[in-house]
Amino acid sequence: DSGVTQTPKHLITATGQRVTLRCSPRSGDLSVYWYQQSLDQGLQFLIQYYNGEERAKGNILERFSAQQFPDLHSELNLSSLELGDSALYFCASSRRGGGTGELFFGEGSRLTVL
Amino acid sequence: GENVEQHPSTLSVQEGDSAVIKCTYSDSASNYFPWYKQELGKGPQLIIDIRSNVGEKKDQRIAVTLNKTAKHFSLHITETQPEDSAVYFCAASINTGTASKLTFGTGTRLQVTL
Q1: Which of A1, A50, A60, B73 has the fewest CB atoms within 10 Å, i.e. is most exposed?
Q2: How many CB atoms lie within 10 A of CB A83?
Q3: Which is it for strands B108-113 and B56-59: parallel, antiparallel or unpaired?
């Protein structure tokens, strides 16, 4: 158990809809990261937050947005969903915001868009 | 941006044999290279990492080597066991001190057969 909690574990929705994925980091971790894992593209970095502030951005679509709240949990909002958004979405956390050090991953939220 | 290539995509070895997974990266400024193991239905978990000021690091049956000149790094697993069966990801990042943006390879599915 990494200590990172993601909900929901599974989500099935239709094209055009909007969903919210939630992540609670490990106790004491200030950074939260979101990754998308699809079959053909491995783990793609979406975005990083550190203590409520956005720190790094990857290939995150404009239809996607995220935020980190004062209690350090984070939410990833996916809107105007398309079939290609079907994937596993992982949240990870770390103690610091810097570029080295272990990321602790949750078990992921599997999104299926029909 | 950084691009990480990983080979092979699948690897089957007999129990007790060694396994080698190779990665190359594109950005010479990258200075942190972790390896993650992902078991079925779980999130990736860090197994070993290496920083650019070190050429080799070993932890029991696992070792990682780094060739900065060639921008190559490799994972070596000796005396493989069935529980080593999983998907392994290499990654690279640049330590900015304030942000982290791990770029992952596409993964290697390792199967250890009896």
Answers
A1: A1
A2: 9
A3: unpaired
